[in-house]
User: Which sequence fits this backbone?
């Protein structure tokens, strides 16, 4: 049985195929703003699958995905009610983002628990899984792009910058100074949040990074032990195995 796995995030929507054993080689990405019946038809024209598993944090696009797939094959939207393979130690579990639950499901077999998963996307999220295992909660902060882009939008003279590793901590130009503030400052944010979480979480957690800015930020954060770009899609795959088999 082959599943179509869809990670519908704020900026990009990732598509993959998987089965009970692993993720398969086919992958595609659509900009989330571009999702429509027409773009889905074009993307999936020659793709064969038996069921669809979706995590979505964009309600308007989730409605389009639901309408598109509903009459075509079995369909499941991941939520706190899905068979995640763990408990949930959280007062209002319906408030947990589906992508965060997918990341949490993915870390169980790929890396182990306890764990902290950091997803560097439009927002950066920290999700905490205890040794039980159970989803315990986490942190939400502005994403790196949001923090760096804010300056150019709210100031008259500061430009839009390309995010890259600064060559030194003392900026020698406006762009260089902004890169230092963005990259080194963001790593400081990540380190402080991790330190506070680890004070409260029993055990020695695996710290796993994923998302578009994971490689750039993890390069300077020694606490991050693993960068795993597939953890969200593989979490969807693991839940799909419990739903559809």
Assistant:
């Amino acid at each position: 049985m082959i599943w179509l796995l869809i990670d519908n995030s704020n900026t990009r929507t990732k598509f993959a195929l998987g089965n009970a054993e692993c993720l398969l080689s086919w992958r595609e990405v659509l900009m989330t703003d571009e999702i429509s019946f027409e773009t889905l038809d074009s993307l999936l024209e020659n793709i064969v699958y038996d069921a669809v598993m979706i995590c979505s944090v964009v309600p308007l696009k989730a409605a389009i995905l639901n309408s598109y797939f509903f009459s075509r094959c079995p369909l499941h939207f991941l939520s706190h009610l899905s068979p995640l393979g763990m408990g949930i130690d959280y007062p209002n579990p319906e408030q947990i983002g589906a992508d965060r639950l997918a990341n949490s499901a993915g870390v169980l077999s790929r890396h182990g628990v306890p764990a902290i998963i950091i997803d560097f996307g439009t927002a950066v999220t920290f999700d905490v899984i205890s040794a039980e295992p159970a989803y315990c909660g986490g942190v939400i902060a502005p994403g790196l792009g949001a923090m760096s882009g804010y300056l150019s939008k709210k100031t008259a003279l500061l430009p839009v910058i390309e995010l890259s590793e600064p060559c030194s901590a003392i900026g020698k130009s406006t762009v260089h100074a902004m890169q230092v503030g963005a990259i080194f400052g963001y790593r400081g944010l990540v380190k402080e949040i991790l330190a506070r979480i680890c004070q409260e979480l029993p055990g020695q957690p695996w710290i796993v990074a994923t998302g578009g800015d994971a490689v750039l930020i993890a390069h300077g954060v020694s606490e991050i032990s693993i960068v795993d770009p597939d953890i969200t899609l593989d979490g969807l795959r693991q839940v799909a195995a419990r739903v559809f088999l």
Remarks:
- The CA atoms of residues 13 and 30 lie 5 Å apart.
- Residues 3-111+230-244 form a domain with the Nucleotidyltransferase; domain 5 fold (CATH 3.30.420.40).
- The chain has a mean pLDDT of 92.
